[in-house]
Design a protein that fits this description.
The chain has 365 residues and is an all-alpha fold. It has one domain: Up-down Bundle (A middle domain of Talin 1), CATH 1.20.1420. The protein has 11 helices and 2 strands, in the order ααααβααααααβα. It has a two-stranded antiparallel sheet with strand order 1-2. GO terms for molecular function: potassium:proton antiporter activity; sodium:proton antiporter activity.
């Protein structure tokens, strides 16, 4: 029985090493070329593999440094991938990317707060009936998230310095600085000042015996993580025109591009959050989900702000009325869910219904 498991583990280890190298090889093959169907499929597969392997190596580093640093490493890795995808598409001369950053950040918040949290609550509650978590760890993260998402995605609709749902350069710089400041304070609280608030509850938690990776293993994962991210950046730039062209030919709204980017980069983190929920470690699930949403806003926005100002790229930030309504409902619902310290399948179902409304109205506005 142990031999098949050992062989499977060995194969996965080889894939985690070979995938970044293969992705870089595919990048060298398609760089500067127009992608046909075959190269498009190969590039897409290589990009997905690089994303999955990048997050795997981030998890190895996370096990070395421990919680809640583990969730932080994973969130940062996913955000680097997301920023790379957004910037590569923004810098594509053939694409209209004024709404891309806004749509991607909004989609990330909706997917995390409704899709991922709802799925974790539903699956976890089906197995454990009632799920427990620390409100002193979830509510501060939600407070930071609500403040930033309102400032970045709602306030531009009501400012007068510029026309449309935009910020002026000084407002953009202010928003970027505030994002970094709040995120820095949150990380200080999460990892140093009140680290115990973000650890799982002691009672009713199923623990798992995981060996701490060696320094050599963690260092190797760091190098492979960097290599994977290089492949992601290059492949994303090559795939940007086909993604936009597919959305246009299908007659779908441009916001679908942002949803596709957010869904792709959040897939590995969603898997990790669901695994934690199945082990009745909901605090770890919330650390992963809320941490990724915070990192998406706090790190993506400053990077996009710098790029847009430096290269004089137009960028829309304010959401339309329909999206503001869904965002307000999401923040209210998430507040009610996370303020009780306990959750059942009902909360998970409600979150998933709101997520379904988001997806449907994005496809059929």
């Amino acid at each position: 029985m142990l031999q098949p498991i050992t062989r499977l583990s060995r194969k996965f280890h080889l894939c985690s090493i070979g995938a970044p190298l293969a992705a870089c090889g595919v990048l060298a093959l398609v760089w500067g070329r127009s992608l046909g169907w075959f190269l498009l499929l190969v590039s897409t597969a290589a990009l997905i593999a690089a994303v999955l392997v990048a997050v795997h190596h981030a998890e190895v580093i996370a096990r070395r440094v421990g919680e809640p640093f583990g969730a932080l490493v994973l969130a940062l890795a996913v955000t680097v991938i997301e920023v790379s995808l957004i910037l590569s598409i923004m810098l594509s001369e053939t694409l209209d990317s004024r709404d891309l950053a806004r749509d991607t950040v909004f989609a990330t918040v909706m997917i995390v707060c409704n899709g991922v949290i709802g799925l974790c609550l539903l699956i976890g509650a089906l197995k454990h009936r009632v799920l427990g978590f620390r409100t002193e760890g979830t509510t501060p993260a939600l407070a930071v998230l609500a403040t930033l998402v309102t400032t970045i995605l709602v306030l531009p609709d009501f400012t007068f310095s510029t026309e449309g749902p935009t910020f002026s350069d000084s407002q953009l710089i202010f928003a970027g600085v505030v994002s970094l400041l709040l995120y820095g304070v949150f990380i200080f609280v999460q990892t140093i000042r009140h680290r115990d608030y973000f650890l799982p509850e002691a009672e009713g938690v199923e623990t798992r015996d995981e060996r701490r990776p060696s320094t050599f293993a963690a260092g190797s994962s760091l190098l492979l993580l960097i290599l994977s991210l290089v492949a992601v950046v290059g492949l994303a730039e090559s795939l940007a025109p086909p993604i936009e062209g597919f959305v246009q030919r299908a007659g779908m709204p441009h916001a679908v591009v942002g949803i596709a980017i957010a869904a792709m980069v959040l897939l590995p983190e969603t898997t990790a959050a669901i695994r934690s929920a199945l082990r009745n470690r909901m605090q770890i699930s919330f650390n992963l989900t809320l941490g990724s949403a915070l990192a998406s806003i706090c790190l993506t926005i400053p990077a996009i702000v710098f790029t847009s100002i430096f290269l004089d790229l137009p960028m829309h930030l304010g959401l339309p009325a329909k999206e503001i309504t869904l965002l307000a409902l999401t923040l209210l619902l998430t507040t009610m869910t996370l303020s009780g310290g306990r959750a059942t399948i009902l909360q998970g179902t409600v979150h998933l219904v709101v997520f379904a409304v988001f997806i449907f109205t994005a496809m059929v506005p």
